[in-house]
Amino acid sequence: MHIHQYEKLWLGLSLLLIVGFVATVTYGAVGAPAISMVDDSGETVDPNAIGDHPKFGDPGVEKVGENEYAAYVVARQFIFQPDPIVVPANSTVTFYVTSADVIHGFSVVGTNANTMVVPGEVAELTVEVDEPQEYGIICHEYCGRAHHDMEGLLKVVPEDEYEGGDAE
Ligand code: CUA
Fold it and tell me: What is the Å distance from ligand 1's center to 141 Cα?
């Protein structure tokens, strides 16, 4: 059978496309270093016993290194705890976020922090903050009747005003 030159070319190109698609999807799923999905390898928590958890039982911010802070955050219908989350300027903040009930979202507006919050799992994300300022935090996964009201606050305060906790 004779196959026209152009037809061969198109066959070849479409084959290449298919290989490309498969490669892209595979890379995105397992290979890409900068992309992390909701943490399925990390810590898990029992959403029904969050009150007893050593960190999430009394969520807040703690110092973990020179200019490094860990912020434990619980999302629940329809608040984030603590609120506000207070951290000092010029620091690196790693958020550990979990849910006490249903799936929520956690997005620190104006930063690259954005994750789903799944009950039983701990989402981990790190943000660098510099100048003192306030960032809104929003839930961007529909979680019930007051979803649209579910918001929090990240307060970056001057270093000399920071008191080392989540209290005002
Ligand atoms: Cu929580 Cu929407």
Answer: 5
